[in-house]
Structures are given as C-alpha cells and as structure tokens.
Amino acid sequence: MPPPVRFALAGFGAWGKLHAKSIHHDAGAQLVAICAPTEPxxxxxxxxxxxxxxxxxxxxxxARGGFDIVDIVTPSHTHxxxxxxxxxxxxxxxxxxxxxxxxxxxxxxxAAAEKSKGRLAVGxxxxxxxxxxxxxxxxxxxxxxxxxxxxxxxxRKPYRLGAGGWRYDPARVGSWVLEEPIHFxxxxxxxxxxxxDPVELYAYGNSRDPQRPQLFDNFSAxxxxxxxxxxxxxxxxAAFEHHQTVKISxxxxxxxxGWSGALDRTLEPTAFLKVFxxxxxxxxxxxxxSGEVFELRSQIARxxxxxxxxxxxxxxxxxGLWSAGLCLVAEESIRQKRPLPVTGLLKF
Length: 348
What we know:
Elements: E1 5-10, H1 14-24, E2 29-35, H2 39-48, E3 53-55, H3 58-64, E4 69-72, H4 79-88, E5 92-96, H5 103-115, E6 120-123, H6 132-140, E7 147-156, H7 170-173, H8 181-191, E8 198-206, E9 218-225, E10 230-236, E11 242-250, E12 254-261, E13 270-276, E14 281-283, H9 292-309, H10 317-336, E15 340-341
Parallel strand pairs: 1-2, 1-4, 2-3, 4-5, 5-6, 7-10
Antiparallel strand pairs: 7-11, 8-9, 8-15, 9-10, 11-12, 12-13, 13-14
Helix pairs in contact: 1-9, 3-4, 4-5, 5-10, 8-10
C-alpha cells in the first residue's frame, strides 16, 4: 500500500468537522494538522484527532508544512489569503466554494494555481454525486439528445448562522448567491457544456429582512449559452426542510431528479432520477446514497487520487472561477435590474 496522503485542515466549524471525519475515515488519507479559530474548537479538535497537530493560525500551519494538501473550509472572505499561501508554498489545495467573495480574488487564486507545483480542486462535490453526477453521464451518452433547457431549484429552511454569525454578515459571506446557488450554477453550466459558454444572465432576488436587503432569501437567475440553450437557477430560503430538483429537456428526451431530506446533511434522504429517452420512461437506480455528506467523502477520495496519481480534480480553478463569476454577475444584474453580458470571467 502506498503511504497515505497527508491532509492539513483549515477550518473546524460544522462543515469543517465533516471534512475532518471524511479525511479520517478514508483509507488513503491521513489528517495530520488542523487549524481551528477558537480555544474551545481547538480543544475539540485535539480530543477528536489526538494524532493531528493543532494550530490557531492557518498561515502558521502552512509555514510549518509536513503535509501534502491543504483543505480550506474557512469563511469565504478568508479564502484568498489561505489559498494563495498554500499554492505559493507548492501544496495541493482543496478549496471550499466559493473560491472567494470577489472576482478579483478568484482570479488571483486561479493565477497562483497556474504557477504552483500543487494542484487546485474547488469544492463542487455535487459533480461526484451518484445522482447529480449521473445526470452528466446520461447527457454524455446522448440519452436525451442535446440539452436545451436546465432547471436547478432548491426549496429549504433558512441558512445556519455559521461560526460567529459569519454567514449573516455581508462583509464576510459576500453574498448568499455564493452559498448554495453557486453549486447550481456549476451544475447547470456543466450539464450545458456542449452548448458553449454562458453569454448573458438576468437575475432577480428579494429579502424577507429589511436589515439585510442584499442577502436574498429568494433568488432566481437565467443564463443563456452561445447556441441558445439556457438554464434557470432558483432558490428560496424562506421555506422548510431541504428539497432540490433538477429538470432537463433535450432534443430527444428529458429527465427529472429530486432529493428531499429534513436537513441538507441528512443521512437518510429520499431521492429519485427519472429518464425519458423519447420513447420510454425509466426510474434509474442510484448506485449509492445521494447527499452532500456522501459526496464529500467522494471528494476527499478524489483528492487522494489527485495528489497520488495526478488525476484531474472534479472541479478545476476554471470551473470555480466560472461558478463564482456567474454568481457575482447575478448580484450585479439584480442591482442594475437588467440582463448583463457574461464576459471576461476567465481573463486573469
């Protein structure tokens, strides 16, 4: 057996702890360092993973070294500094979405990744899903023909506060469009990959709370690709539980997928995938359970392959730049109340 890939984890909030568990339970990975922001979380990390070195400062952890890949699961506004330090030090990086909260910072990270000895994987784990990833395979097999319309929609309960309330602070979260809709933009663009790049986007949004009008509880956007195919991304945080839908129609057939759970991280969701090839309708069995907890495990395994075997990341810097860029254009479209061209996102 080859030696395990050594992970350093920056961030030990709710999602960071799930990253830690996924690394710890992967036979090809070893969690050797953890950076946690407070003394209570550092104590918790030390108790849960006594074999790992514990740090208060992610830059100190990176400077100390002794690992192969840095897994960054910190609040979004900190991503640029930590990712740049890791890439410039030659480490591989798994960077939670969004890459950063501004296009400038995203481009800086992408440029650093191009120059680094390490590789950058962006945390779009939905691509590795037995459900959402299977849809891409169905498209590639030509079962529904060329996709012409994609809908990715979510109805869910309000967001968690995040450590220290960062998710409800515009200065730190950047935008709620950069939270979950970024996954949906990534999926929609991925499904429409054969249609050319997005060229125009129009978005709407509103908030239930007048104290945070720029954080949208209800959000919808439509983008058009070069060949006329288009996608709709829509989300409401003003509801209950967690219910996600994908619907795609193509030149030959269509498909419909749904996922429901009491929470986004439930371990016992209900999920389905129906595919119509133009003649027959089939309920497709899922090879394994679908859900972000399970997809995170697949993402860690893919990072092990990236470090050990040079396998391409499920989502590259280019993918991360596109998804963050579409979110930020959507925000600007809402502010200007008009459709906007999608240009220059990949220039850095």
